[in-house]
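ping. complex inputs:
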Amino acid sequence: DAKTTQPTSMDCAEGRAANLPCNHSTISGNEYVYWYRQIHSQGPQYIIHGLKNNETNEMASLIITEDRKSSTLILPHATLRDTAVYYCIVLSQGQLTFGSGTQLTVLP
Amino acid sequence: GAGVSQSPRYKVAKRGQDVALRCDPISGHVSLFWYQQALGQGPEFLTYFQNEAQLDKSGLPSDRFFAERPEGSVSTLKIQRTQQEDSAVYLCASSSSSGSSVYEQYFGPGTRLTVT
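pong. complex structure:
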């Protein structure tokens, strides 16, 4: 199973871009990368996913390196409501395996 | 529109009691998932339904855990003879079943189970 490595925590100033890195060096060619976040005391929320190409939606952008061994989730203008645990997940064996994630704190 | 709802939101059970946790998925979503989240950890997969069929139950930790979705909509997770290690938040998620979008899951708020 492909595993992911994320920093335990990060801070970001309100209004600035938040760049959350994820390493997945053992990813296979057909495995997708998913990002979810979990605000305190709520269920996780789907953000975005991708395979090879960069992806963008109304919430965020996902940049996947050409060798697919790492990716970065970008929140272009972070707000206080973006404070949450962000999970980078490599979809494997038909299951989402959440790790420990990155605690992002957006500071006023 | 209505999201995924779960009930009860909080449940306290004495060790040895049976509990039943309910999940109402988003209307029309054929896929339904149950997860267990211990304090300070990420959610862990328990089981997966497509309509009424339980396609994957590999994450259920013991035979005390049982899930059903008899009519392909509402699902119930039952835990028999609860133990203290069962204390966790139990999350339900649903999704449409269409290729990779089955993993674009919508989560409920969870049921916090405390076993005393």
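Chain A has no helices and nine strands.
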